[in-house]
Specification:
Rossmann fold; Luciferase, domain 3; 6 helices; globular
Length: 289
């Protein structure tokens, strides 16, 4: 309704059927796209496999949300789809997309304060934290009538930014969510978010943006295995080079997480692709009595 109000022709394409989605992008030439960041990479991969250049599309801007994503992933999407990527935040329980959104300054997401009051709390105690401190994001609805929510706990991890934005808006801003309190893994006493692993992997040449984390309990100790998909360029079969790459990834992950992880390199396009939210974590500890 919002896009229609400002005069945009909107194509509700639903989810899935990547071939059809790319066909719509080619035929209708939209300049905006709205989807999950992981699905944006799925679209880019399909286009590259089928010889379709991003320059053949008319895309200029992309709004991506519904799952945590890093600045490195933003750069990857922008490089492969030739557009400017914006973060948009929302919850189905509150309003859906539109609770907060990035401007072209990319210095946080502007919260629609005329409709929502944001707070950051300690997820364990419920205590309100000072501005700038990271914690769980909480919203109170001030205009919603059918289902008003008071101090609704989102489980998203973020912080609040106050002060004017270079774009001129004065609404309070929130940082890009760093993950979820219920996505957070505790492995050998260390808090681990999938977004931390993603930020490391996307800075290393020779691997793709797709990965999966598997957590198991062996004896009385937790173990973390990370499946990392090789890029086409690095899939040469040279054992020495692959081992050097695996060691580089292992050192980088250990440095950012503070714990060791077993790194397994997989063939290009071997990990499952998701048309909705990507499933990055398989916690097998929940299956053990």
């Amino acid at each position: 309704l919002g896009s229609k109000t400002i005069g945009c022709a909107t194509i509700p394409a639903s989810t899935g059927n990547t071939k059809r989605q790319v066909m719509i992008l080619q035929d209708f030439k939209p300049i905006f796209i709205l989807c999950t960041p992981s699905y944006a990479l799925t679209l880019a991969e399909y286009m590259e496999e089928n010889g379709i250049s991003a320059d053949q599309l008319a895309l200029k801007y992309g709004f991506f949300g519904a799952e945590p994503w890093t600045e490195a992933m933003r750069a990857e999407i922008e490089r492969r789809l030739h557009l400017e990527a914006f973060d948009i935040y929302g919850l189905s329980e509150i309003i859906g997309p539109g609770v907060a959104y990035e401007c072209q300054a990319h210095m946080g997401l502007h919260v629609s304060e005329d409709h929502f009051i944001p707070e950051i709390i300690d997820p364990d105690t419920g205590e309100v934290l000072p501005d700038g401190e990271k914690g769980e994001l909480v919203f109170t609805c001030i205009t919603k009538q059918a289902l008003p929510l008071i101090r609704y706990r989102t489980r998203d991890v973020a912080s609040i930014i106050k002060g004017d934005c270079p774009c001129g808006r004065t609404h309070v801003r929130m940082t890009k969510p760093a993950g979820r309190t219920d996505d957070m893994l505790i492995i050998r006493g260390v808090n681990v978010f999938p977004s931390q692993v993603e930020s490391v992997l996307l800075e290393i040449d020779g691997i793709g943006p797709h990965y999966q984390m598997i957590v198991e309990r062996k004896g009385n100790l937790d173990s973390l295995t990370i499946l990392v998909e090789l890029s086409e360029d690095s899939f040469t079969g040279e054992v020495r080079k692959l081992e050097a790459l695996r060691s580089e990834i292992s050192r980088a992950v250990n440095s950012i997480l503070g714990i060791s992880a077993e790194i397994k390199l997989t063939d290009p396009k071997s990990l499952e692709r998701f048309e909705g939210k990507a499933k990055r974590v398989i916690d097998k500890r929940n299956l053990i009595d």
